[in-house]
Design a protein that fits this description.
The protein is mostly helical. It has a domain of about 230 residues. Helix content is about 70%, strand content about 0%. It is built from 21 helices and no strands. The protein is elongated and about 110 Å long.
Length: about 525
């Protein structure tokens, strides 16, 4: 074997390549393995590690082919089967992975690694609670090897998938008691922490190992998510615009002041969190995205302020300015999504279509945010536009706000669908996601229709169906006159009398006493 591949057995080469892969030095690991495979192209151990390298690069199809080749060359080893199981799970083919692990359990029922990976393969996307088969599998792995921290990490993953975060944190804590410095468990402790506390924990983790790819991906996702959450405040001018469509200038001013206070608090909180991060650990991203987001968000609030001042003397120009504020807020949110897509796509390329990890968690958070904000704004917009149609607003006033709000709700549908790519098990499979998407779509169509109806004048909007046209004269009818009643005294009319015959008294017999 060439010296560049590291003198020694294939196990030594695999250990060196695995260490390089763990710190993100994939090119160096590829050189080490490539030279070793050139000398032993059919070694199952080397092929298994090569499949792991391909999986780390996101080449899942190549990783599967290599893992199957390793199984064929070394059918007596467990390593190739375990790697094949990992690749199948990463592709979302849990049923195929379960077939492999079920066969392995029959061949090696006392191997903890087999049970741990069987727990991962038994995860079901549609289940609402942790399936009993999953807990049975990871409990068996922990029973066989309680001192192995990897099995505690897998058990925590299985519980976190179904939202059992408290139990997942407990499992991580138990695992850290056996291995206080275990990298994976420390990363899971940071991952399962509240989103606001994650960056500081991850910075501490990366300070000891700057090459930790998973922690860096999680930090990038957490920071980009905080930026996305902060830009949600750019939708507050849309709420002010809806108040302006239905309320008085005073109500509009009060709502704008409250919205500005909320936006200021959100901005300060986000800025404080960002300042605690070292500049080297911030999301690099594209420089144009954050600049456009900040500029559009600032422009939205400036337009809202101009709209408030204008609302005191004219409603139509004020609504036009508010509509521009709504559009600028939508642009502010859309500009941040490019960095989010980049971060989540990188995480998904490494882990694949698995129901856990960075892409799954933050893709789900982004999808939920888009769905709830779009639904709330859509319902409020339909109510406000309907109220505006029934008022005396001039023609063309309602669509100035209704159509920009429809643009925002349509954008929330697009964002929810794009986020579903990073959380495949949530993509149109959850009933709540489907119903909310349909509701937002209905609100968008309703806003467009109400805006079109608002192009008519107030009289035409409120005229009953089938009634007379406004420019057609209503026919009049003449009522004949009658003579006034006479004031002469009335002559009494005699009433007839009737003679009734007399009826003789009727004797009623009485019953004798004692009878």
């Amino acid at each position: 074997m060439p010296s560049g591949g590291g003198a020694g057995s294939p196990a030594d080469v695999v250990a060196r390549a695995g260490a390089l892969r763990a710190v993100g030095q994939l090119d160096a690991a590829e050189r080490v393995l490539g030279q070793a495979l050139a000398a032993a192209p059919e070694d199952g151990t080397l092929l298994t590690e090569w499949a792991g390298l391909q999986q780390a690069r996101g080449d899942l199809a190549g990783a599967e082919a290599t893992a199957r080749a390793a199984v064929q060359t070394s059918p007596e080893q467990l390593g190739p089967y375990i790697r094949l199981t990992n690749v199948l799970i990463a592709q979302g083919r849990n049923a195929d992975a379960r077939e492999v692990t079920t066969a392995l359990i029959g061949m090696a029922p006392d191997v903890a690694a087999v049970w741990a990976h069987h727990a991962l393969a038994s995860l079901e996307d549609r289940a609402r609670h942790t399936p009993p088969s999953v807990r049975t599998a990871y409990d068996r792995a922990l029973e066989l090897e309680p001192e192995t921290p990897e099995w505690w990490a897998i058990a925590a993953l299985c519980e976190q998938v179904y939202g059992n975060v408290t139990l997942a944190r407990t499992l991580v804590t138990e695992g850290l008691r056996t291995a206080p410095q275990h990298r994976r468990l420390l990363a899971l402790r940071a991952e399962y922490a509240p989103v606001g506390d994650q960056p500081e924990l991850l910075v501490d983790l990366l300070a000891t190992d700057p090459g930790d790819v998973e922690s860096r991906e999680l930090l990038d996702a957490a920071v980009s998510w905080q930026r996305r959450l902060a830009t949600t405040a750019a939708l507050l001018p849309a709420a002010v615009a809806l108040v302006a469509l239905t309320g008085s200038p005073l109500a509009t001013t009060v709502s704008a002041v409250l919205a500005a206070v909320v936006a200021l608090l959100a901005h300060r909180r986000s800025a404080d969190r960002r300042r605690r991060l070292p500049s080297g650990y911030r999301v690099p991203g594209s420089r144009s995205g954050p600049v456009v987001a900040r500029s559009a968000g600032f422009g939205a609030w400036v337009a809202a302020a101009v709209g408030i001042a204008t609302a005191w003397w004219s409603s139509v120009p004020a609504l036009a300015v508010f509509g521009a504020a709504v559009v600028l807020g939508a642009v502010s949110i859309g500009a941040t999504l490019l960095d989010d897509d980049r971060v989540l796509a990188a995480a998904r390329a490494r882990t694949g279509r698995v129901p856990w990890g960075t892409a799954w968690r933050f893709g789900g958070l982004r999808q939920e945010t888009a769905l709830w904000t779009g639904l709330a704004l859509g319902i409020a917009g339909v109510v406000a536009a309907g109220t505006g149609l029934g008022s005396t607003l001039p023609a063309g006033a309602v669509p100035l706000v209704a159509w920009p709000v429809a643009l925002v709700t349509a954008g929330s549908v697009v964002e929810a669908l794009r986020a579903g790519r990073h959380a495949p098990q949530r993509y149109l499979r959850t009933v709540g996601v489907r119903y909310r998407l349909l509701a937002i779509g209905a609100c968008t169509i309703g806003l467009i229709a109400l805006g079109a109806a608002g192009l008519a004048s107030p009289g035409a909007r409120t005229a009953p169906e089938g009634g007379p046209e406004p420019d057609r004269p209503v026919p009049t009818f003449s009522v004949p006159s009658y003579p006034a009643p006479s004031t002469r005294p009335s002559v009494p009319v005699p009433l007839p009398t009737f003679d009734l015959p007399t009826i003789p008294p009727i004797e009623i017999p009485t019953e004798p006493a004692g009878g």
